[in-house]
Specification:
This protein has 61 residues and is mainly α. It has 2 helices and no strands. This is DUF3098 domain-containing protein.
Length: 61
């Protein structure tokens, strides 16, 4: 089991969830914009770093 690839998958899923939450909040205008911007930026960072971990980790049998 590759821990880096698993952690990358978890980060990617958390990033997607954060981006969806921020997008939904922007559409509904339900929360303060500062909170949504911070959530979107953190979600984007998680998403990009998770994709990077999954992409750059080699499979070892």
């Amino acid at each position: 089991m590759n821990v880096k690839r698993t952690f990358g998958t978890i980060l990617t899923i958390l990033g997607i969830a954060g981006l969806i939450y921020a997008g939904y909040g922007f559409v509904k205008h339900s929360l303060q914009s500062r909170e949504l911007i911070v959530t979107g930026i953190i979600g984007l960072i998680f998403f990009v770093s998770g994709i990077g971990l999954v992409k750059n980790t080699k499979d070892e049998a």
